[in-house]
Amino acid sequence: MRSGCQLGRLRLVTRERADAARNRAKILAAAADLVTTRGIEALGMAEVAAASGVGVGTLYRRFGDQAGLAHALIDASEREFQQAFLSGPPPLGPGAPPEERIRAFLHGLTDRTLAQLDLLLMAETAGPFARFGGAYEAYHHHLAMLITQTWPDLDASFQADALLAPLAANLVAHRGLDGPTIKAGLDRLLPKA
Q1: pLDDT tens for each residue of 21-55
Q2: Which band of pLDDT confidence, cut at 50, 70 and 90, is reported for residue 175?
Q3: Cα(64)–Cα(61) distance, integer angstroms
Q4: Which terminal residue of the chain, N or C, has fewer Cβ atoms less than 10 Å from its own Cβ?
Q5: DSSP character for 94?
């Protein structure tokens, strides 16, 4: 894993120690196994520490809290989804008309949300603004760009927020709607050309 620190114009890049990388992999494998076999309720820091064979302090230093651990578990799927809409095949990726890309993006995000709903619920509700981190900003920017290309007279930023709102994990969990119902509702929210 690489992390960077911006210092003026100089960017320092550090590499994760090999033992730290192994611990991270063990922790994430144990956490994923706990969620798969026992449900999201088993994602307690003490349970994950015991299952992975590391100390609870290591977990807190590495991930901060349960929400941080949930974010780490979501990370691989998130990277795949972002790669798909940034450079994958159309209609989700470049090459399709913007209106088709918007629809494909919203449908893909619906599938992604439902696939990891419990983890997203934990990650997105850790604090008042937890939902609005890096992934949300990437989604918002992407949608706003496509909205501007498709409907230049709309407030693209507001429209992007309006299209992302129904996919908040707590709302999806509260309503209990299935994928086809959510996708049909999102399609109806899209402006007519």
Answers
A1: 888 888 989 988 988 899 888 888 999 999 999 99
A2: very high
A3: 6
A4: C
A5: B
Residue found by looking up tokens 């320092």 in the block: 12
Q: What is the 3-state secondary structure (H, E, C) of 61-77?
A: HHHCCHHHHHHHHHHHH
Partners of 3 in the β-ladder: 14
Count other Cβ atoms within 10 Å, centred on residue 66: 18
CB 26 within 8 A of CB 54: yes
- Mention every residue, 6+ apart, whose C-beta is less than 8 A from residue 80: none
Query: Which structural domains are found in the chain, ordered by start?
Result: 1-64 (1.10.10.60), 66-193 (1.10.357.10)
Residues sharing a CB contact under 8 Å with residue 140, sequence separation 6 or more, in sequence order: 157, 160, 161, 164
> Cα separation of 158 and 84, whole Å?
24
Continuous segment of H or E residues that includes residue 79:
helix 66-87
**Stretch (H or E) spanning 14:** strand 10-15
Token representation of residue 141: 């920017």
Q: How far is the C-alpha of 180 from the C-alpha of 186, rounded, in Å?
A: 10
**Residue 123 CB burial class (10 angstroms; 0-12, 13-18, ≥19):** buried
